[in-house]
Amino acid sequence: MFNRYSRTRRASLHAICAAIAGTALSVCSQSALAADTYPDHAVNIVVGFAPGGTNDILARLISAKLQEHLKQSFVVENKPGASSAIGTGYVAKAKPDGYTLLVSSSGGLTVNPIMMKSISYDPVKDLEPIALLGSFPLIVTVPSALPVKNLKELEQYGKNHKDGQLDHGVASSSFQLVAETLSEASGIKFNHISYRGSGPVVTALLGQEIQVGVLDSAAIAPQVKAGKLRALAVTTGKRSAAFPDIPTVAENGYPGYDVTIWTALMAPKGTPEPVLAKLRSAVTDILKDKELIQKLHSLGMDPGDADSAALGQRIVQDIARWDKVATSAHLKPE
What we know:
Residues 1-34 form the signal peptide. Helix content is 47%, strand content 19%. The protein starts with a helix and ends in a 6-residue tail after the last helix.
């Protein structure tokens, strides 16, 4: 009886294994077929911000290049709101077939999980890294009338200012956290004042309503060139190719400081690997395109790469970093 049972059980296991193998083979075949034919219709690239910003401009540049490489339409769709959480959540829940992608700021992936009480996505569990599209520094900026030429002078000026603090214009929670890392590194103390984006912060700087802004380069470049604002430092560890004349925070006397803002191309988790590989291959070529590199530099960005594993690690590491900064600064999610 035992032998009959064993033979029956073995036969059942063989049948189950054969079925599993057949299913796996079918899935692999379908994935390979998907890669062969992908994309066979238009691909949506979602941006979690309104048109006209750095991420939107970059998404449109990348979309145009993807269309050239893959011979299919790539259409940018803006879904602004909640510091890009609406658009990011939309892509995280989309069908994982390669036809809905996300161009995301680093803040949407690594700051929102720290600074927002409830979001509809987990950037690690719900999204798949494709490529780092570009990175850029924030720029520590002051009104040209402020009597400081570098960060050491700004630190001393702050100590002599009311309550030992400088009024800092906050354009986003990401920028506020970067300002806090600067505070930790330099001893410069900030009184954070929230504004609805970089534009209003620039206006406040021009009106000398505030003393400092830690801002994206696209927002301040025209006013710096016009001599109305002064750029004291870039937050990256090395000088930006787009702004070679602006020294780093480290060069201002605070060694080891390095904070980079970046933008990435992401897909919903579960997107077939052959489709992801095809996208990564295309983006690898695109990020070497001289015309694109020039356009990135005009935005104050340096080109990224399609090392998705490194990007995945960076997301995890940045979440941990910003969590530590927020905790140290006693900033609570809202």
